[in-house]
Structures are given as structure tokens and as C-alpha cells.
Amino acid sequence: MITRLLFISILTMTVTLLSAQGTKIPLYVGTYTSDKGSKGIYEFEFDTQTGDAKLIRETETPSPSFIDRSSRFLIAANELTDGNQSISSFAITDNGLKFINKVGTGGTAPCHIVMDKERKFAVASNYLGGALDLFSLADNGEILSKEDTKTYNGSSVDKKRQEASHIHSTFIGPDKLLYVSDLGADKIYVLDVVKDKDGKLQFKEVNTLTSKLGGGPRHIAFHPNGKYLYSLLEMTGDIEVFKKVGKSWKSQQVISMRKEGFDGKSGAADLKLSSDGKFLYSTDRVDANTITVFSVARNGALKQIQVSSVFGKGPRNFNFSPDERFVLVANQLTDEIVLFNRDKKSGLLSDSGKRIKAFTPVCILF
């Protein structure tokens, strides 16, 4: 009897220990670098149960303002304008990130990077120069070559900020097509990636969406059912909802993320949908410094249900923790990541009181 109780006690302790270890996961933060601040990519150990984060190491690389990763390697967009702009690849090892190689981009200020699901290619969006770059990847994460560059020459109604194409991001839709936001032209380009007769990867134009004029599309989120596309309009602080009709998309709603009565300037930064498709979240910078929560109706329409302070300035990128219990907001101008508790049933956020110190954080990735 005593032996049996001892066995059960040891088994319980082992399960508890393994469970506790399983709550600790890597958290990577991309930044803007400087002599007085960040040197590159911060790597934290994040506790998914408590929301606590411990800095493990910092990997040097210039201004990795956006990052994407697989289980084996990480790709960073080095957002520079001095001729050294590039994308860099790092192996993910037990001892941190290990540099593999880097390749220059076809434009300047590459501000977004994304890989396809199979990790065979990466697409870099260059804010300056109107260039969209396509890179092939090896299985180990090495950037093999720049396969194609597509250059856009658009403009729109705001003569100061939309004097030329500004490619801000590329997201891959449920249909596996690329959705490219051009802030300067108020366009969303839809592209496919195909191989030419020699096996080289190429962009292929499929469609073009026109967004609200003067809005400046920045980022995109897709509903899990694939029927709705949400476009974040940086310049007006709006979200435009598109519904899929056949093989095309039709605009069906434009809704503000701003609090009623707010008359300051907006700089909408990021948006994401909860995995169940019931709630959408978006951040707004400049004068607002807020995160907004929308409920999502069955027809894809949005309804604003909460506008909360981010308790800092310059909320850039944000992300859910893997179980979506927390929302982490990167406040670029106050050098801090703020953690919100998230109620999965109501979608509403509340301040957890937890903060993660990081210099100029602009991208959060689990």
C-alpha cells in the first residue's frame, strides 16, 4: 500500500513538472536597432500560464522590424535605407539563433516578410521603391536566391503620403494566393507564385482590389471560413471588410477603430482575428495609442465593442499567445510590451499588469 502511494506521489510530481515545463515557450521580438538601444532580435522564455517573460538572449542583426519563422529557422526583414537592406536567415538552435545568410532586397525599407506554409519561399515587402521580392529557401532555411522582383508605380489621393507605391505587407490567403497591400496606391494586389519553364519561381498577377481612397491599406486578416477579408487602413484608422464573390472580392463595410468623439490623428498598425473568427483586434498609433475590439457577425460584418488604451505609445505589431488567453502589444515608442488578459467568450481585454521591457519593439512572434 505504501509502495503504491509512493508511486502515485512520484507520478503526480513528474506530471506536474512536465506540465510546468510545457508552459515555457520561445517568444521572439523584432526591433529597430540603434547604438543606444536594441541590437536586434530579443528571445524570451514566455510562460503561457502566467504571462511572465524572461529575457534569454539578444541576436545582433540590423533593424529586424518584421520576422517570420518555422520550427527550424527564422527569417527577418532588415528595414534599412542605406543600401544594406536585406532579409536575413537564422537557424533556431538550443543555444539561440545562428546566422545562416542574408540577401539584398530589390527596394528599400523592407518592412514585412512572410513565408509560405511549406517554407519553400519568402516574400519581402519594401515600403520604399514599390518593390515586392520573391526569394527561394532551402530546407535548412538558407536563402538560395532572389527569384523575382515586381515593381509597382501607383499613387492615390493624398499627395504627401501617396505620391508613389508603398508596399507595406504580403499575407497568404486561405486560397494560397498572395495579398499585397500598397498603401500608396490604395490597392491590394492578388498574386500567385508559379514556376517558369526553367523551374524558377515567378510572380503571376491574378487580381487587384481597390480600397477606400486615402485609406492606405497596411495589413490584412482573413476569416477562418475564407469568405471575408479585413484590410487595415493606416491613414484613416478604418477597417474595410471585403466579401468573396466567386473568384473576386467585393467591399461591404468600412468601419472606424477610433473611439467615438476622438478627433486626433491615427496611424493604424496591425489587425488580427481570433482563431474562432468571432473577434477582430486592431491597434492605432499617433494620438490614439489604442487597441480596438470588434465582434464579427455571421455575415462578416464588424461591430466595435471596446476601445482600450495600450498604456504606452506607438502600438505597432501585436499578437495572441498560442492559447489566445493573452494579447501582447508592442509599444514601440515607450520600449515596452503590454500584456492584456483576453476573455475568450466576450472577446474583451483587460490589463494584466504585466510588462515586458524591450527597446523599440515592433514585431512579436511565438
UniProtKB/TrEMBL annotation:
Pfam families: Lactonase. InterPro entries: Cycloisomerase_2 (IPR050282), Haem_d1_sf (IPR011048), Lactonase_7-beta_prop (IPR019405), WD40/YVTN_repeat-like_dom_sf (IPR015943). Keywords: Carbohydrate metabolism, Glucose metabolism. Gene3D superfamilies: YVTN repeat-like/Quinoprotein amine dehydrogenase (2.130.10.10). Belongs to the cycloisomerase 2 family. This is Lactonase family protein. It comes from Sphingobacterium daejeonense.
